[in-house]
Amino acid sequence: MKFTKMHGLGNDYIYVDCFHETIEDPAGFARKMSDRHFGIGGDGVILVCPSEKADVRMDMYNADGSRGEMCGNGIRCVGKYAYDSGITDKTEIDVETLAGIKHLSMEVENGKVKTVTVNMGEPEFDPARIPVEIPRDFKLTEGKVIGLPLDAGDIYRKGTCVSMGNPHVVFFEEDIDHFPLEVAGPIYESHPAFPQRVNAEFAEVENSTHIRMRVYERGSGETLACGTGACAVLVASVLNGLAAPEADVQLRGGILHIRWDREENVVYMTGPAETVYEGEVEWPSAK
């Protein structure tokens, strides 16, 4: 089976062209192949598939085999894969995901896609749709979960919750480099307040247009970058009066430019997409 290794700011996935391949047990494939010692290595697997609703469909599996609704870095690479491999010759495409159809605009240089802008859609604040379970005595702020008290063992923080097609909780820190994410991350990921688990972001706002962040992704652990997480951080920063609605968000793998159009209530993400290498691996195809 042929595959392509790609990454967006170090958030790396194994991509398979399911226009030509059919994978038996994709969850098992993701678990085995994502292992960085005994497999190809990656934060998960993304299948690029035909779609009846869009130009392509993106099926995402985290490193632990669980399904992911959306991945901002991953979808940029889907756009690059579709264009560079000839699945499409358009620089504006729609991609079907479990979080809905996302529109991509691609910048091409020397015949290859270099950067991709993704319409990430509307941020979701309804607790039931994030989803997050809140105490009866907790008061929403204009219908939004801002300042929700959450503990992770001896670590106590107040989080802002938002869905960007997948659930996020954002915490603000003064020094993210020394924050014990390896301890707090897995506890918050599986915190009982989040029935579908959660992506936990820890953000340090340097100024109104530059935010630094670290992320503990649901099903993958700490990653170098998370596109939906960067969008969630920008939205949460605006809601808490800490940043402008357009800013650079610096992750460990690089910088994403995020813009929240408050009039349209739509978030846009712009960033790079890179191909690392192509290869073949043995795995049974579905009958």
Assign a percent range to the helix content.
10-25%
The N- and C-terminal alpha carbons lie at a distance of 14 Å
Tally of DSSP β-strands: 18
Averaged pLDDT: 96
Estimate the global geometry from the Cα principal axes: globular
Poorly predicted runs of 5 or more residues: none
Main sheet, how many strands, which sense, barrel?
18 strands, mixed
β-sheet strand percentage:
35-45%
Structural class: mainly beta
Quickly count the helices.
4
Radius of gyration over all CA atoms, rounded: 18 Å
Order of secondary-structure elements: EEHEEEHEEEEEEHEEEHEEEE
Question: What features would you describe in this structure?
Answer:
There is one protein chain. The chain is built from four helices and 18 strands. The chain has about 290 residues and is mainly beta. β6 (about 90-95) and β7 (about 100-110) form a beta hairpin. The radius of gyration is 18 Å and the shape is globular.
In short:
By secondary structure, the chain is mainly β.
Please render the helix and strand layout as text.
Blueprint: E1 2-8, E2 11-17, H1 26-33, E3 44-49, E4 56-62, E5 67-68, H2 72-84, E6 92-97, E7 100-109, E8 112-121, E9 145-152, E10 155-163, E11 167-172, H3 181-189, E12 199-207, E13 210-217, E14 221-223, H4 227-239, E15 246-251, E16 254-261, E17 266-272, E18 274-280
List keywords for this structure.
44% strand, mainly beta, 18-stranded mixed beta sheet, 287 residues, single chain
